[in-house]
Amino acid sequence: MQNNSRQPSAAVDTLAMAQACQDHYIAQRLPAWMKRLSVAEFTLLSEALPELLACRAGLVSALARIRNLNAFTQPLLQQALGAHGDLDVDRLYFRQWYTFTSPTIHYVTSRLPVVGSDYYDIPLLEAALSNFTAEQQRDQPQGNCLVDVRGARRSELSAPGFARLCRALDLGQKYQAHLDSVLQPEVRGLLTRRQRYSMLVDALQARAQGVLSADELQWVVALCTKDTLGKLEGASVRVRQLAVFGCRLQQIVVLDVIDAGLLFNTSKRVLVYVPGDPHGPWSVRSDLEDYARRVLGKRLREDDYRRFFNRFVRRRDSQRFFSAVSERLDDVPGWATRDLDEQTFAYRLPLFEHLADDWIARIKDDAAVIAPPVALLDREVQAEHARRLRAEGWTLLGVAGFFVPGIGAVLLGVMAWELLEQTFQAVGDWQDNERNAALAHLLNVGKGLLAVGATVAVVATARRAWSVVDNLVPAQLENGEEKLWNADLGPYRCESPPDMAVPDMEGMHRLGERRWISMDGHWYEMTWHNDDEQWQLLPYQGYAPPLRHNGAGAWRLWYEQPAEWGDTRQLFRRLGGPFSDLDDAQIDQSLAIHGLDDQHLRAWHVYGLAPEAALVDTVARVRLAGRIGTLINHLREGGVTADPLLLEQVMRLPQAAGKDGAALADVAWAGRRELLQAVYEEQNPDTETGRLLRQNFASLHRLAADEVLRDASEDDLQLLRETGRVPLPMAEAARLQVARIRIARVYEALSIDTPQNLDLARVVLNLLVHVPGAGGPGWRLYDGDASEPLVTVEGSGQTFDLLHRHGLFRLRTRTHTVAGERGELFETLAAAYDDASQAAIGQGRSFVPALRQALTDVAIEQRQTVVNLLRLEQPTGSFLPPQRLADGRVGYPLAGGRFWGALGRNRPRALQARLRDLYPAFSDEQIGHWLASGDAQARLHRLEQQYGVLKRHLTQWARSALLSSELPARREFRKGLINCWRCLVPELQGQAALDDGRFMLTQTISRLGHLPALPAQVGFPHVSILALRAMRVEHVPDEFLRAFPNLRNLEITHCRLRRLPLPLMLVQKLEVLDLSGNQITLDQGQALVLADCRSLVYLNLSDNPLRRAFSVQAMTELNALYLSNTQLPECPYGLMDAPELHTLNLSGNRISELPEGFHQSQLWRLGRVELSGNRLGGGAGWVIKLAFA
Questions:
Q1: Alpha carbon 664 to its chain's center
Q2: How does pLDDT run across 999-1023, given as a tens digit for each residue?
Q3: Where are the transmembrane segments (predicted)?
Q4: 218, 220, 330, 432: which has the fewest C-beta neighbours closer than 10 Å?
């Protein structure tokens, strides 16, 4: 009962910490000014921002109905042209002639000016948008005409006729009507709300930043919420519109605080509101001139600010305005100021409705400048507009193509949207309800920051309901920013790679420099990121999700957590390559053949391991059997096969010549096993080295041979290639593979139509007794013409001989009567059962399939029996053997959910995803321990930095051996070190192992000659045992060993060390030191260091040319001392003072004298002593023999 009561409390505490970590990402993206608001001000902000977001969503929806100018007018013009013949508006131009004063001097006119003429062609739609005057529809220059793309004149419509058509069509007026239909009244209402709440939010920001005073903020709040123009510090305020250089600016509001005088009024100060200003929307200055000179005039000197400010200038005024800006402000010293001919005009009230009307009027007016209605045709305005377009590098048609009125300008500067974009990745792809929930959560976090004094430690201590945010994961953008991302992969998906793309062993499809992978049935293009040394998807909106893979086709996103994947078939398919091509039944067959379950598959994903060769081979054979079955069905149905390569193999079968359709299907069915084996062997050609190995192990298939060769040392491979002899370690690995293959082949033959052999017959005959009704006959199994049976199975009925030859079977009675022709096993067995027995076993089904299925079920249930029948031991020695042991397997992660079940389905993912990416094998409980610590976020950040440093350093270290034979060894050691740092040690998983420091880092038989000097910030505190054996290492850097602060066992044996690898930080910590089989020679300094190893329990320096004795007096815990073949001239000093010493081996040295009293010591009387091979006298030698008798 006590346990039950405490568990929910712990779960709630952990949930709160997980939520706090999730909210940390939001808190760190919130602007600093928001944290300085008062509670009342933040309440106003929390009310205004959702309103702004709703306005934006409404405006997006409404303005989406506005068609851009080109798309709206082109069909109308094309329809009008259709009445005049075959005229294509997209392929026609309007040629317009003009006159000018020529600089050429003519001999007739002498120095008098000569009038020249020329023409230019403009797209027909551009000419129609510019429209024509009434005079142009009657008379135009004679050369004006319509021409095609080649410049040829078109006679269907004259220039005046085209002018009349355009004036009658009046595209500009039609577009004005289109704008009216959308903008009124829905957009007007949305714009009013947007202007109101934008001003309010910007005022709150200005107050937090110290721009507005408290009184000024309250005045703006009253204006925005109540439309009241109250007094500001006792003074009246007038709402004015700003005009500069004679141009009235749109949407800018000037609040003129009036200082009333006896004779005339003056400005006490002005508050200027410029929506979306990157320098801050609000400015407070002493008067309008001060603002114009020292604020607006300074900002307009920047090109970026001019581009921003363009949104407040009507298109018809833009040329005049920006020309004046350039003339007045360009090349002005930074300290100087200029007036801007500034003026103000009264705004009509209510203010926000008027601002909305002005915005709509401005949009319509801008459209009229580009496409003027006939009634508003103004050639002077058009000329100014054309000059502005030329200055900006545009054409009229180009501007029309991009003119979707106001969507950009009206949607920019919405603070609610900006906050979402700053915090969440690709928020534009979200649904409205998701954005609303995210904004609500963001505001809740901001409110929490205010409550705890702008810290992040206790942001989310209460339960929340914003599952949208809890499901997000952190995203590190290319520019270094970090946002939360909803893991939507839709924008990253692409079409399947071109047919020319070539797949490789890692599961990538390559074409030139491009790469594609498939995950969960979707294709993604990816690229290599040099800085992080990892693959990632092509970026979308600045984010390129990093990828993780096992080097053999299993790809996943960094945040995906295989430890939580619960669907066995998903786990199987995510192994990639051919694994993803199998259907559900084939997946179940493959797993049953090898006795695998979801835990085995999950472990491969978690530890980033490739599936074993035996399973990969079975998947290929199951897939091939499926292809054969599909082809046979197509042939029977008379359809066209989609597998011509397999059909070509069918035509090579005996009796296939000249047949097609159902007849060919019968041939393929009869030879399906031989067909499978032929295609299988063709798909798996031998390598030269593999052929040498398979000559000694005939049952070894190509994939298994490759795995043995891949795991072998370079020395063993060299021996195999040079002599043809298989080294012992390689032979043991090959025997293990053969055992697995024999078991797999039996189960494959039971499940699919593969070649049948004696192993299958041996298993089947012995399992018949377990099939109800099938245990009656007795059996004797013979191989070919052998005189003695291989297997004898007693039965209650008649005994039959089963003869095997070349994969086919024949039945023979005791009287040597042959029953039937040679055939496959199960059909041959059927002849031994009468009709009654077959009916009883078949249970209404055909006997042969029923018997085969029954035997398959028995074999799956009694896997150990099958192993015993094949006279094999349980295959061991690999990470995941084909059978699952009855007592489970240490370190296999289960599907997540037991710990998190109490926390709800929508648990925060950010910290958990980062932690699992760093430590994929962590259990739910280990993650819970992390979250329970108060500094989880900071610890994780430090570890991520350490991991990055370690990867980069080891990558650089490995690359430094790029041109040497040591490169493969360095890469292997790099991988092992990184996996060890990430606790990816399957044999030692578990919190107890981590807490007790029982991790062991080992490397055996390698050509590695140099160990890396690890950075100071990298550590392996969980490693207590370091074992390096049979390597070429000559020196161990102190910087390498310092990374193992909790090292207790150091074993570097059969290497090439010349000095003791003993940094001072390890000297008094080591309990086991084994440096046997090196080339260490002791000098006085090293002897002193060795003598200071006070905690040693085991010391082995055998087979080193030490040549100098050292003291063991301080080694009070020493239990075993091995110093054989070390060229010692005398015994170690203090030998008689080591109270715990039990084993001593000083054989093969130059010792001529033993310490006084040695033969009476406890070591001599009760311990184990070896002194042979020294220069001691005969008496001593005789005593030694007695001691070891």
A1: 48
A2: 888 888 888 999 999 999 999 988 9
A3: 394-417
A4: 330
Q: Identity (one letter) of the amino acid at 505?
A: M
**Which tokens in the block code for residue 822?**
């040679």
pLDDT in tens, 1136-1174: 888 999 999 999 999 988 988 888 888 888 899 999 999
- What is d(CA 717, CA 699) in angstroms, rounded to the nearest whole number? 20
Locate tokens 């070509």: which residue?
Answer: 648
| Domain layout of the chain by residue ranges | 31-204+369-423, 230-348, 472-560, 757-865, 964-1187
CB 994 within 8 A of CB 921: no
CB-based contacts of 348: which residues, under 8 Å, 6+ apart? 354
Phi (first) and psi of residue 832, to 5 degrees: -85, -5
Give residue 884's pLDDT. Answer: 32
Q: Residues 571, 601: contact at Cβ < 8 Å?
A: yes
Cα–Cα distance, 524 to 511 (Å, whole number): 14
Q: Which segment, 179-188, 190-199, 308-317, is predicted with the most confidence on average?
A: 190-199
Helix (H, G, I), strand (E, B) or coil at 1121: strand
62 CA to centre of own chain? 37
Q: What is the pLDDT of residues 948-1007, one digit of tens each?
A: 999 999 999 998 988 888 898 999 899 889 988 887 655 444 444 445 556 888 888 888
Burial of 696 (0-12, 13-18, 19+ CB in 10 A): middle
Contact call for residues 1169 and 1189 (beta carbons, < 8 A)? no
pLDDT score for 263: 65
The identity of residue 341, as a single letter, is: D
DSSP state, 110?
B
How far CA 201 is from CA of 432, 450, 528, 594, in Å, comes to: 21, 17, 43, 65
Of residues 952, 590, 587, the one with CA closest to residue 744: 590
**Cβ burial, residue 453 (10 Å; 0-12/13-18/19+):** exposed
Give Cβ neighbours of residue 67 (< 8 Å, ≥ 6 apart): 178, 404
Rounded Cα–Cα distance for residues 401 and 74 (Å): 10
Count other Cβ atoms within 10 Å, centred on residue 1041: 19
What phi and psi, each to the nearest 5 degrees, are found at residue 751? -95, -40
**In 3-state terms, what secondary structure has residue 1149?**
coil
The dihedrals phi and psi of 154, each to the nearest 5 degrees, come to -105, 130
Q: Is the pLDDT of residue 109 over 60?
A: no
- Digit-coded pLDDT (tens) for 649-692: 999 998 888 888 899 999 999 999 999 999 999 999 988 989 99
Q: Residue 594: name the closest of 887, 866, 873 by CA.
A: 866
Distance (Å, whole) CA 359 – CA 57: 18
Contact present, 1078 and 1057 (Cβ < 8 Å):
yes
Query: So what's the pLDDT on residue 891?
Result: 34
Q: What does the block give as tokens for 579?
A: 């694994």
Max distance between CA atoms of the chain, in angstroms, equals 141
124: burial class by Cβ within 10 Å (0-12, 13-18, 19+)?
buried
Whether the CB-CB separation of 736 and 877 falls below 8 Å is answered with yes
Tokens 């600093």 belong to 32
Band of residue 766 on the pLDDT scale cut at 50, 70, 90: very high
Q: Are 472 and 909 in contact (CB under 8 A)?
A: yes
- Tens of pLDDT, residue by residue over 61-97, are 888 888 888 889 999 999 999 999 889 999 999 998 8
Picking from 520, 546, 710, the residue whose alpha carbon sits closest to that of residue 613 is 710
Q: Which residue has the tokens 């498939």?
A: 518
Report whether 544 contacts 478 (CB < 8 A).
Answer: yes
Q: What pairs with residue 1143 in β-bridges?
A: 1120, 1168
Beta strand 1072-1074 with 1098-1100 is parallel
Pick the CATH number of 964-1187 from 2.60.40.10, 3.80.10.10, 1.10.10.410, 3.40.50.2000: 3.80.10.10
In angstroms, rounded to a whole number, what is the distance separating the alpha carbons of residues 96 and 404?
29
Angle between helices 39-63 and 188-208 (to 10 degrees): 150
